[in-house]
Amino acid sequence: MPPVSKEIALGKKELALGQVIDGDKVMSLPTTVAHAPAYIDDVPATTSVRESRTQRVRRLQEEARALAREQIAEFEVLLDATAKAAMEIADGGEVYSIGAREICRRLADELPRTLQTLQVISKKR
């Protein structure tokens, strides 16, 4: 019989189904292996409810697109809040350093345009 497995377990080598070498002896063991490959198609489902792989791929792609749209919408809210916070710092006067105020002034000027661009790009998809 050709070897099925060369796995070493507890000092014994399994040669073939039902045969084990222990030292110099070959013992036959009453072993039956029920092997049935597990396929996705073996999962019980009714034919009317079951979706094809193509339908599943389309559904998952749409879910991914919906999540991407959701993430972009959240990012738009964050950009808007950041622009408002930057404006507050820019208008904060002497409490903030001149460098911080200048950077925030630039951000407050730039972020609303960036937000509008992102919104236009998002709506095209």
Structural class computed from helices and strand pairing: alpha+beta
Strand content: 5-15%
Q: Percent range for helical residues?
A: 40-55%
How many helices? 2
**Biggest beta-sheet profile:** 4 strands, antiparallel
> What is the chain-wise order of helices and strands?
EEEEHH
Rg calc: 33 Å
| Arithmetic mean of pLDDT | 77
Distance between the termini: 62 Å
Provide the spatial order of strands within the biggest beta sheet. Answer: 1-2-3-4
- Low-confidence segments: 1-18
Shape: rod-shaped
Q: Quick one: how many beta strands?
A: 4
Index terms:
125 residues; alpha+beta; four-stranded antiparallel β-sheet; 4 strands; 12% strand; disordered N terminus
Structure, described:
The protein is α+β, with helices and mostly antiparallel strands. 52% of the residues lie in helices and 12% in strands. The protein has 2 helices and 4 strands; from the N terminus they run ββββαα. The protein has helices at residues 53-90, 98-124, and strands spanning 8-9, 12-16, 19-22, 25-28. It has a 4-stranded antiparallel β-sheet with strand order 1-2-3-4, with no helix packed on it. The longest helix is centred in the middle third of the chain and has 38 residues, at 53-90. The protein is rod-shaped. The two termini are 62 Å apart.
SSE order and pairing:
Elements: E1 8-9, E2 12-16, E3 19-22, E4 25-28, H1 53-90, H2 98-124
